[in-house]
Amino acid sequence: MTAQSRPAAGRMASFIPKTIGPWLSEADHVYDAETIFQYIDGAGEVYRSYNMKLLVSRRFHKDGRPDIVVDLFDMGSSGDAFGVFTHDFDGEAAGVGQGSIYKAGLMSFWKDRYFGSVSTEEENQDTKAAVLELGRLIASAIPKEGPKPKLLSYLPAAGLDAGRVSYFHNHSVLNYHFFVADGDILLLEQTASAVLAPYTTAGGKSFLLVVGYPDEAKAARAYESFAKNYMPDAKRAGIVRTEDKKYTASARAGDIVIVVFNADSDPFAMNQLASVQELIETANKK
Amino acid sequence: MSRNMITRRDFLKVASVAPLAGALLPALRAGRAGAGEKVKVVLVRDPNALDASGAPDAEVIQRMLDEAVRALFGEKDTVKAWKKIINPSDVVGIKTNVWNQLPTTSQVEQAIKRRVLDAGVPEDKVSIDDRGVLRNPIFQNATALINARPARVHQWAGMGSCLKNYIQFVPKPSDYHADSCADLAKIWLLPNVKGKTRLNILVMLTPLFYVPGSKTQYDKQYVWPYKGLIVSPDPVAADATGLRVITAKGREFFGQDQPPRMSPHHIQLADTRHHLGVSDPARIELVKLGWKEGILI
Questions:
Q1: Interface of chain B against chain A, CB under 8 Å?
Q2: Complex ipTM tops 0.85
């Protein structure tokens, strides 16, 4: 931990209660983007991909009962706190912070620039209640809410599964949600921001990807790269029928690239693209 | 792009001609790399590798390792086989993996150490380590390395592989995390590692074939008692073989083929980009020993 990060860690620690029921807290452990691998083996890079700044980890212990662990991350922005929260959707909403899920002794939530997880080594009635209460107390202590990424406002509402929209910055995370290619053919490169949104369609599920780049030139290169690597056989620019008899279509609007995967039909794909472009234009006029 | 990409459409093409054909993808990738001589990989399994509590049985593990090494090097005598890769003058680091949910296990570690000692290496010239290798004098002065780790799906690299097990040999692991750890093989070309690895043991006793989320990296419902070891001097071939098993198990469990959530392309790139070993199943001579039930490949 650097000297600069100590005040931030202290502030984060103040959001976490010192006790929960009969459980007492142990000493905090603080990690940054370089030291997180000492604590989380395997998924540290997921948090780093969302630009994590600090992690304060606090364990609660009570003899004879399973331990409870709070991991509170400062992600630097509310967008990235939302983003890392959207990495896992598995669980039921817990009504904590600006979004939360609970499953099998693990609760995750986000609020403002913070992402939190509260977990117990063994779920029972007492530990579940303590986990949920800890989450509520921490979220309440965080003084304000933060905005979600602007890209979300470009998603057409019809058919959208709004609870399963993910936000990220690189192709590894894109592939985690929806495998596109084993290389970065969309040139996300950790400098772009993207939302991947599932849509329920007559024929199953379609995915809409909206990527915002730092500038138009980068978006243009990314659009070309995607066309070259993913749809080299396209008979019409920007749309191709894929091997599963679905359609993939892409378009660029300024510094934004839009891709529709798994569309049931050519018209559906083109309509999705047009809808996004319209929402972008509307947002730009405001 | 600087290399041939595998896209979702490649997967769809394969699936459209052969249902449940995802295991062909490694071959599809490697097929672009060209042909060459075959490398030998031994897969050894024993139904008694785990005891009633699920812990490895030390005697059975020793026997499995011995059989694998004998088969690998074409020797009837275990110690003679080990002497083909270890000299009495060697300083030997046994690189293990201590991840608490799924470690290499002390039974595997000790089975290796026993044979290294049998090959004539003094005990004070052998060390077993994972996260301390950069500070460990034996590893700092090692002339030979034995690499042993459990196989598991990995949240970022796609697969916790023999290749990935060497990430502790660099001071800043995150330098090798880009593109889902695409260039892990570079670590194997660093001076403290290059050319020293004599044997790779991918522990397949209870592999992890699926990771449900970033916070839940281990879930016992996604491990199974495969009761195997994959052994090879070639880490890439060992990993490519282990990946085939894990992929097949995922297909069996979920009832359908599916694209990878995190692409383990570092294995293919270790072959095609870094020329460290062989990832193409067509160029791997797989020797299967022991228990065949549920072998999956």
A1: 1, 3, 5-9, 11-13, 15-16, 99, 154-156, 160, 172-174, 177, 179-180, 211-217, 259-263, 265
A2: no
